[in-house]
Predict the structure.
Amino acid sequence: MKFKQLVLLGATSFLASALSISGYAARVSGNPSSNAMNPGANSRLTKDTMAQNMSAVMMSGTFVAAEKPTSGTARIVRENGRRYLELDGAFRTSDQGPDLHVLLETSDKPPQSYQDPTTYVNLGKLQKFSGTQRYPIPAAINISNFKSVVIWCRMANATFGYATLGAARNASTR
């Protein structure tokens, strides 16, 4: 008799936990109409939440050399409602620049040196000379105004390399 009671208690506990988790997932997703008794709704919520958390490539381009050898790919991605510039694992540029920065530039082919600071947005210092890195893009920036990503040495005012950006299919640029 005690064994049957333990099995029944275990099954009841398992169901209570499952319903509690489902209810929590519905509350976290912010959809008050879904509940633990509607598993299809929770499945849709989970898929929608996962889709929002995934990165979507909006624009991308391949680096070419200007003053120094530069290679790899730059991508503008949207993730969790925010936009980032990502340099991929194949990204490489010269380590001879003492003050390298990452710019978004309004032209397809940036100048060798800058005279007009209004044509670009500086996303910050280059984190490292090679490999994967990520730079947040401020929400106020309309990325459709920018046509390339530039690796620029501020101290020497020299463009090391750049990637002309192209829109990804089925992506919004705002």
